[in-house]
Amino acid sequence: MRPTIGVLALQGDFREHVLALQATGECDTALVRTVNDLSAVQALVIPGGESTAMSKLAIAFDVLQPIRERIAQGMPTYGSCAGMIMLAREIIDGRADQETIGGLDIAVRRNAFGRQVDSFEAPLHAPLWGSEPLNAVFIRAPWVESCGAAVEVLARVESGPHEGAVVAVREGAVMATSFHPELTSDNRVHSYFAQFVRENV
Ligand code: GLN
Asked: Whole-structure pTM over 0.85, yes or no?
């Protein structure tokens, strides 16, 4: 079956995710802003952006709880950067009123890389997406500070002061990256996700 993958389109770089998914040739795409939109998709991408704003909008648009329910029912979900924060169980350095969707048993630190390197690119090896390194783009990115036993670490920062920091994880059908593959022409993360959706829904 050719799945329809939704992209949460409340805030952030959802257009880039739509283009990246379309470029895989493996799926159709739809923007998700309402519960009705959500019911029409088999999987969801949560984009990069600003997690505090996205959290407020998700509550205002009444989609926070419905997305939680779909994830609990096994909907494949992928989040980049702010999307990773939205999928975390716990946020360190979040705003007091900031809510997450959850789905990943991880604690993330917002803006973890600090001011001096708030944006940078680095090669990452992540065997799940192939043997060639990915050029990972980090923009005021979070990292995964701790994760539960069921969480698989997919990639870590490989050099520099933050060597070893966990920047890609998955747990069951939920996957997240601190970086933004949607901003590069390397489509392997989106291809992997679309393929996973094809095989699992
Ligand atoms: N720092 C942002 C946040 O806290 C995430 C940045 C991004 O998505 N590029 O939500």
From this structure: yes
